[in-house]
Design brief:
This protein folds into 2 domains: 74 residues; 52 residues, no CATH class. The chain is 53% helix and 11% strand. It has 3 helices and 4 strands. The model has no long low-confidence stretch (mean pLDDT 81).
């Protein structure tokens, strides 16, 4: 089966070969052009149909993927706030002045020159200079102590 390009090349060759055509030759040429347009139309319909099927298939894949993401990432989503970004592990400390709970990221505990203040009264809740680095890890490594 000839491709559309081959048929177009054939028709161009016919036009280039005979600058002046009689009526019968013109009729033959127009019949070939119409047949070619009919073939192009059929192939375009087939491509459009295949495209529509692919769009439906991709939409189904998208729905399946969304369901998998919901199942897989549901636990992570529970830790998200209303602003839709992840937070590190959070630490809560009570303000020594007003007693309000102040929440901040745990990573601040390990940074130098950090001071966390209470949003209500402005009192210092945590100051990294007041904490000895060994104090941060004592709780993790303290095991049951044997008293003699």
């Amino acid at each position: 089966m000839e491709t559309i390009r081959e048929k177009v090349a054939y028709l161009k060759g016919m036009l280039d070969a005979e600058p002046k055509m009689d009526e019968e030759r013109l009729r033959f040429l127009f019949e070939k052009i119409l047949a070619l347009m009919d073939q192009i139309s059929d192939e375009l319909d087939a491509v459009s149909s295949a495209q529509a099927e692919l769009e439906d298939y991709v939409a189904e894949i998208d729905l399946d993927l969304a369901a998998l993401e919901d199942d897989f990432f549901a636990e992570e989503d529970e830790h998200r706030c209303a602003c839709h970004h992840d937070h590190d592990d959070m630490v809560q400390m009570e303000c020594p002045e007003c007693g309000e709970e102040v929440e901040f990221e745990e990573d601040f505990l390990y940074d130098d020159d950090v001071q966390i203040t209470c949003p209500s009264c402005g009192a210092t809740v945590y100051d990294s200079e007041d904490v000895d680095d060994d104090d941060l890890f004592e709780e993790d490594f303290d095991g049951p102590e044997d008293e003699d």
